[in-house]
Design goal:
The complex is a heterodimer of chains A (115) and B (113). With 115 residues, chain A is mainly β. Chain A has strands at 5-7, 10-13, 19-24, 31-38, 42-50, 53-56, 65-71, 74-79, 88-95, 105-106, 110-114. Chain A contains no helices and eleven strands. Chain B has strands spanning 10-14, 19-24, 32-38, 45-51, 56-58, 62-67, 72-77, 86-93, 101-103, 107-112. In chain B, the strands form two sheets. In chain B, strands 1, 3, 4, 8, 9 and 10 form a six-stranded mixed beta sheet that branches. A four-stranded antiparallel beta sheet of chain B has the order 2-7-6-5, with no helix packed on it. Classes of the chains: A mainly beta (115), B mainly beta (113).
Chain lengths: 115, 113
């Protein structure tokens, strides 16, 4: 299994532009998570899905952020419009069980730089 | 809000020595804990987990200890190797759902040859 696949690995964009981050979870996993990592705030959970349905989006910083999961093998995190303070590494993770305590498998991350 | 914190932000050890990374958590309702390792440029990687009904769990060269009385978690790495150099995160889960996994800030472990 290739693990959780994220694209792009690096993204540099200008302030005000729309940014879309993509994630393919591990096949068979029914929970998917989006995290943001910065030096100041560490790893923050933005949103997670269970069986393609958003369960908790309380970590989404503001309306500029949105996430979708149209099917079990694909999810997107969109920022529109992007701002310099959105610069961070964004991780997608998946796990085989959403209701029981199990580990989450992380992708390599997308490093976003907004200038 | 409650959060997971770390006692030591950096730890430097000699190759072959044992390492101990500590973590304090504040939510007494947390029932599941995980240690992750993150190497530069990579995503966090699962090391070991422990549930609240246990005090100790051992893996290969790693041991996690849980002290619920003082809400303390530790990761012990035996015979530390250069490949163990990374940032280590503890994470706590409360509410019975993986989605409530809260991460600490991390401890950087440097292994000197």
């Amino acid at each position: 299994d290739a693990g959780v696949i994220q694209s792009p690995r690096h993204e540099v964009t200008e302030m005000g532009q729309e940014v879309t981050l993509r994630c393919k979870p591990i096949s068979g996993h029914n929970s998917l998570f989006w995290y943001r990592q910065t030096m100041m705030r560490g790893l923050e959970l933005l949103i997670y899905f269970n069986n393609n349905v958003p369960i908790d989006d309380s970590g989404m910083p503001e309306d500029r952020f949105s996430a979708k999961m149209p099917n079990a093998s694909f999810s997107t995190l969109k920022i529109q419009p992007s701002e310099p303070r959105d610069s961070a590494v964004y991780f997608c993770a998946s796990s085989p069980q959403g209701a029981l305590n199990t580990e989450a498998f992380f992708g390599q991350g997308t490093r976003l730089t907004v200038v | 809000g409650e959060s997971v914190g770390l006692h030591l932000p950096t730890l430097s050890v000699q190759e072959g020595d044992n390492s101990i990374i500590n973590c304090a958590y504040s939510n007494s309702a947390s029932d599941y804990f995980i240690w992750y390792k993150q190497e530069s440029g990579k995503g966090p990687q699962f090391i070991i987990d422990i549930r609240s009904n246990m005090d100790k769990r051992q893996g290969q060269r790693v041991t996690v200890l849980l002290n619920k009385t003082v809400k303390h978690l530790s990761l012990q790495i035996a015979a530390t190797q250069p490949g163990d150099s990374a940032v280590y995160f503890c994470a706590e889960n409360y509410g019975g759902s993986q989605g409530n996994l809260i991460f600490g800030k991390g401890t950087k472990l440097s292994v000197k040859p």
